[in-house]
Amino acid sequence: LAALRRRFPRAVQYVDDAARAGEEGRLVRTWLGRTCPPAAGASDAAGEEAGIPQAEAAPDGGDQEQTTEWVPGYASTNSRARGRFARNFVVQGSAADWTLLLLAALRRALAGMAAELVFFQHDEVIVHCPAEEADAVVAAIREASELSGRLTFGETPVRFPFTTAVVECYADAK
User: Fold this and answer.
1) pLDDT in tens, 2-14
2) Domain ranges of the chain
3) Is 121 helix (H, G, I), strand (E, B) or coil?
4) pTM of the model
5) What is the DSSP letter of 29?
6) Residues 6+ positions from 65 with CB-CB distance below 8 Å
């Protein structure tokens, strides 16, 4: 973590700020501005931008009420649970923002080709194409990744590389 703080202070500050905001019941946003879901049962008139109610914490920082029912992190009365949720939300949500732009750029790059974007899950993109388009598809994936990084995060030393594999069948890609 110390190395990350030195190398990427802005990114670490972003997630630290998100965790603190979550602990305080405030609104958190992905890098491109999507907000976390409101707390269960929160009203728009609650006064807090995120709609997360502020419960009084027990002196030890734990929940006032002990419950066996599962409560999502953003709706928890436990500030640490809300902080963990908020930290994860901005990281995973910002990654999803980047991915959405990557897939849009890739679809655009594939226009006019026989190649088809057939699947995306987590960190895998599957494009089905004739063998003669494989090199162009690999280049399109690389370019879409770079463009998405610039559009999402601006100029940054962080790179978003894809490892590509041109195979006859998906099982061979591993």
Assistant:
1) 999 999 898 899 8
2) 2-91, 96-173
3) strand
4) 0.71
5) B
6) 77
Rounded Cα–Cα distance for residues 110 and 124 (Å): 17
Residue 122 to residues 38, 55, 97, 134, 161, Cα–Cα distance (Å): 25, 35, 12, 22, 14
Asked if residue 23 lies in contact with residue 73, where contact means CB atoms within 8 angstroms, the answer is no
Count the residues in the chain: 174
Q: What tokens appear for 96 in the block?
A: 């999803």
Nearest Cα neighbor of 76 from 53, 58, 93 is: 53
Contacts of 35 (CB under 8 A, 6+ apart): 27, 28, 29, 50
State whether residue 122 is helix, strand or coil. Answer: coil
pLDDT tens digits, 90-115: 999 999 999 999 999 999 999 999 99
Give the closest residue to 94 by CA, choosing from 149, 155, 52: 149
- Are the C-beta atoms of 85 and 21 separated by less than 8 Å? no
Query: Which tokens in the block code for residue 131?
Result: 């063998």
**Three-state secondary-structure class, residue 157:** coil
Distance (Å) of CA 109 to CA 60, 113, 144, 147 = 55, 9, 8, 11
